[in-house]
Every structure is written in C-alpha cells, then in structure tokens.
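My main concern about presentation is that the manuscript never shows what a single data entry looks like. For the editor and my fellow referees, an illustration may be useful. For illustration, here is how one protein appears when written out as sequence plus structure tokens:

***
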Amino acid sequence: MSIVEVETWKILDGNDGPHHEMIRNWIAFLRKHPDLFEGWKSVRYYRQISLPDGAPTGRYVMLFEYESLEARNAYKQRRGDFSGPYAEYKKVDPYQFFDIDSVTLEAWEPQEEALWFSFDELEQYAGS
C-alpha cells in the first residue's frame, strides 16, 4: 500500500530566489537519476495559500508518494548519510534554504481507495 510523506517548511529570510532555484535543480536531479529513487511513485510541490483570498502564507509543502512504508524506509536506509551515489544528490538538497525550526514531517496512508474517484472519470460517463 502506498504512503504519502508530507513535509512542510518556511524559507530562511532573504533566501526566496536561491530556494526556488534549488527546488528546480532538485527536481531536475530526480528526473535525471530515477535509479536512485527506487520505491518513489511521485513528488508534488505546493505553496500554501490562505482561504478565501489566496494570499501566500510563507509555507511550502512537498508530497512524496512511495510505493509502501517499506519502500520509503529502504530508500532512507540506502541514502543514509548521502555518501556514495547520493553524494551528488546532497549538492542539490534544498534544506540549506529551509528555516529548519519550521519543518514538519508527517506520513499518510490511503484509506477506502475503492471509493476514490476523479471528476475527470465522471465526465467520461456523462454522455452515456
């Protein structure tokens, strides 16, 4: 069963530009080296906004989807201290621009997947 790891953070003061550039570099690295990320299913990046006005809150979130909790843990063990093949990965790790005191980390597992749907799926059946 897949899981989603949810990590949130704020950017260190005065580092918005370097942070955003490093995120782009980090995602480019993931795309170039999928062999290092066995067990990952997807990565999604968001900026938190307030409702209803949509004003940015200053917090960002990354959703890491893994094939399973075991796959996530195996990846973390393989990566370890960022040595070996992960040494290059450490060079694009955006944590240097995170306010470390603001970082949160949670994990979520899917429930009732048989009940999930997409509104795109509903459109397929609208004409029938």
Notes: The beta strands are 3-10, 40-49, 56-66, 104-108. DSSP finds four helices and four strands in the chain.
